[in-house]
Amino acid sequence: MSGGARPTYLAFDIGGTKVASGFVTLPASAGETPVVTGRCAIPTEAARGGDDLKGRIVALAVRQLESAAAEGMTIAGIGIAAAGVPDSETGVIVSATDILPGWKGQRIYDAFAEVTDLPVRMIGDVGAHGLGEASYGAGRGKGVVLSIGVGTGIGGAIVVDGELFAGAHGVAGHAGHVPSALGRGFLCSCGTYEGHIEPVASGTGLKDLYNRRREEMCTGSAAAAAEIDGDVPELVQSGADMASRAAAGEPLACAVLADSARALGECIGGMGNLVDPDVIVVSGSVVKAGPIWWDALRAGFEESALALVKPTPLVEGELGGDAPLIGAAAAVDRYVQSR
């Protein structure tokens, strides 16, 4: 928009657990932070299938647009951060895991066109997170940003001069599927047991790695017994549970957290060697695990990174849960400006 106007976009973040939405007003100056209002969410209820999910997202869009009109807001377009691998040009979900049954093949642009003539732009949810951080968060002002999201799963994004690099098939940045010896024998979300980092370093992976090592203790594994002193602890129910035990000083939890973070840091070092970013932004629920996690992550990165890459700062994301909404708004804004 011209004249220093501040465009407002309706944004969506479609995940496996919930669909978040909000109005994102982008700043007139690059040094300012976007304003997110009208936040709301609905459960994904993935088991109901892709058609049902698409229909409920469109219905939410209608309610949000009606709310905006009632408030006198002018909406310049709709940005969507979508789980799976979306085709930004056609609006089709070209790939999705079993977490969202029936999501693959959904024609999102066509569905929105039935209820609005506003411009719509869709990118991947992890890509949107990275674009948000690169444009208005911890990567602001940097030419090449590598964004890593560590939550229930692990994803990533590469942003170059403010543009999301998607790759030839839209899958660039899949950081969770980088090989790691620690992950061998653990089932990855992509279906392999051959050793990816996600099944041992995501929030879910921390739980699984802990419980596997606990089982080894119970069955008398010499390696596990040598590593951990004391009684065998109870199973953990989540990565957050395990991180709480580490914070309380439990030996097994501390060892698992450090080993997992170190392995992830080694993988990020390899990604850094390939991409050569100005900054690496790490976000997601797992980054709140504390100093043990961050110290091990940085140690693993330094061990793996080339000499010229080693000084690259690893920083925590600044935008929190708003990052995908802001990134989706940034994506549709670039689309609108280019038309």
Report on the biggest sheet: 5 strands, mixed
- What top-tier CATH class of the largest domain fits best? Alpha Beta
**CATH structural architecture of the largest domain:** 2-Layer Sandwich
Instruction: State the CATH topology of the largest domain.
Output: Nucleotidyltransferase, domain 5
Mean pLDDT score = 93
Q: What's the oligomerization state?
A: single chain
Distance between the termini: 11 Å
Total of helices = 10
**How do the strands of the widest beta sheet line up side by side?**
3-2-1-4-7
Comma- or semicolon-separated keywords:
339 residues; alpha/beta; Nucleotidyltransferase, domain 5; 2 domains; five-stranded mixed beta sheet; 10 helices; 38% helix; globular
Describe the protein in words.
The chain has 339 residues and is an alpha/beta fold. The protein has helices at 50-70, 108-113, 125-136, 198-201, 203-218, 222-227, 239-247, 251-275, 291-304, 323-338, and strands at residues 8-14, 18-25, 35-43, 75-82, 85-86, 93-95, 120-124, 144-150, 154-160, 163-165, 279-283, 314-316. It folds into two domains: 8-137 and 321-338, ATPase, nucleotide binding domain (Nucleotidyltransferase, domain 5); 144-317, Nucleotidyltransferase, domain 5, CATH 3.30.420. Strand 5 and strand 6 (93-95) form a beta hairpin. The longest helix has 25 residues, at 251-275. The radius of gyration is 21 Å and the shape is globular.
